[in-house]
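Severity: low
Component: inverse-folding endpoint
Summary: output formatting inconsistent between runs
Steps to reproduce: submit the following structure tokens with default settings.
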């Protein structure tokens, strides 16, 4: 509605200009072309001026309207933005609170897990310290045992360096095996006892049934075997191995010539050769098995500690069987006497049983028939007393008194 005054003013100005132009044309009597030109120019000027005024008014009106609209729009926008911002801020605060709660829970969970990890690390550290201490102790103990073993090995090597020491060591090993087998010195065997009439002195002589004997020699050549173990050269190893095997063959041959097998002295047809080490015994088997075969053909039986224990077990069983055989006649006699006494005992028991049965029958007769016969007159007397036909005895107290 604010545009209508402007339009009316514009039309009024236009009409006024046109009237003035016509009037001036009439007054001055100018030519139509000039007057028209002037009027057109004047009207154009006025029109432009009116248009400019209208435009200025329009601009002013539109500027005012735009400013108001802009101000209102700005206020509405600010209100909307504020409400939107408040809503977003409230939503953000709610989300932040929720996220803060989740973060707190996660931090608490992480704290618990870290505490567990810390406890586990502490336990692992304690266990590591304990295991390290145990390992140190075990290593120390192993080192001590290794040193002890080295010292023992060195001592044993020094002890075995002489023939006499090796003989004593072999005797000690043989005595240990004999003790384990249950053999007793001077009961089951004797040591270093010379053979009568010959002078040969076996290291051990086992006493067998029927005055039989079994001799054993414990001296064994180990020099070249020890050199074989100590050397690092393959050539020297081969040399010492061959020398050792040759020593073994020579030792077996020497034993066969010592009269350890002598039927006149009631010895068995075999003699034992004690090898005091299982490794040496296995080495001989591995390097030259014909040595053991030939020794058995020559009635010499090589024995390691284990095989000697087996041989002694057989000897012990033979001794026990012979002892049982020797006493079997006496045992049979004792069994016959026992059988006779057992038969007499069984007869006496049978007689006693019959007498007990007869006594039982007599006892049952006394407790049944004889007792009923004795109780029958007493029962009749009691019936008569109850009927009043028999007065009670002066010495008998009334039953009421007894009850009172």
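Observed output (run 2 of 3):
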């Amino acid at each position: 509605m604010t545009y209508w005054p402007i339009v009316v003013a514009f039309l009024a100005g236009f009409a006024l200009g046109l009237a003035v132009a016509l009037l001036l044309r009439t007054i001055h009597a100018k030519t139509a072309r000039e007057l028209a030109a002037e009027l057109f120019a004047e009207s154009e000027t006025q029109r432009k001026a009116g248009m400019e005024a209208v435009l200025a008014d329009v601009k002013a009106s539109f500027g005012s309207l735009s400013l108001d609209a802009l101000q209102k729009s700005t206020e509405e926008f600010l209100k909307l933005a504020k409400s939107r911002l408040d809503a977003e801020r409230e939503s953000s605060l709610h989300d932040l609170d929720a996220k803060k709660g989740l973060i707190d829970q996660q931090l608490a969970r992480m704290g618990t897990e870290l505490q567990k990890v810390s406890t586990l690390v502490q336990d692992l550290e304690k266990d590591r310290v304990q295991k390290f201490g145990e390992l140190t102790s075990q290593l120390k103990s192993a080192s001590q045992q290794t040193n002890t073993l080295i010292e023992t090995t060195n001592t044993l090597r020094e002890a075995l360096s002489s023939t006499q020491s090796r003989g004593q060591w072999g005797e000690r090993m043989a005595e240990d095996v004999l003790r384990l087998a249950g053999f007793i010195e001077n009961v089951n065997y004797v040591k270093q006892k010379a053979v009568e009439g010959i002078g040969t002195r076996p290291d051990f002589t086992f006493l067998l049934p029927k005055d039989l004997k079994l001799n054993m020699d414990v001296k064994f050549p180990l020099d070249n075997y020890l050199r074989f173990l100590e050397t690092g050269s393959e050539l020297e190893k081969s040399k010492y191995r061959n020398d050792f095997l040759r020593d073994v063959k020579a030792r077996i041959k020497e034993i066969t010539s010592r009269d350890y097998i002598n039927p006149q002295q009631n010895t068995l047809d075999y003699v034992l050769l004690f090898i005091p080490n299982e490794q040496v015994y296995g080495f001989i088997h591995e390097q030259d098995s014909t040595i053991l075969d030939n020794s058995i053909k020559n009635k010499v039986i090589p024995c390691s500690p284990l095989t000697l224990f087996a041989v002694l077990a057989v000897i012990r069983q033979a001794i026990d069987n012979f002892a049982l055989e020797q006493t079997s006649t006496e045992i049979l006699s004792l069994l016959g006497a026992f059988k006779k006494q057992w038969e007499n005992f069984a007869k006496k028991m049978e007689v006693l049983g019959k007498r007990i049965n007869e006594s039982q029958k007599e006892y049952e007769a006394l407790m049944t028939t004889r007792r009923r016969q004795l109780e029958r007159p007493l029962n009749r007397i009691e019936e008569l007393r109850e009927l009043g036909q028999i007065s009670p005895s002066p010495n008998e107290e009334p039953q009421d008194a007894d009850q009172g």
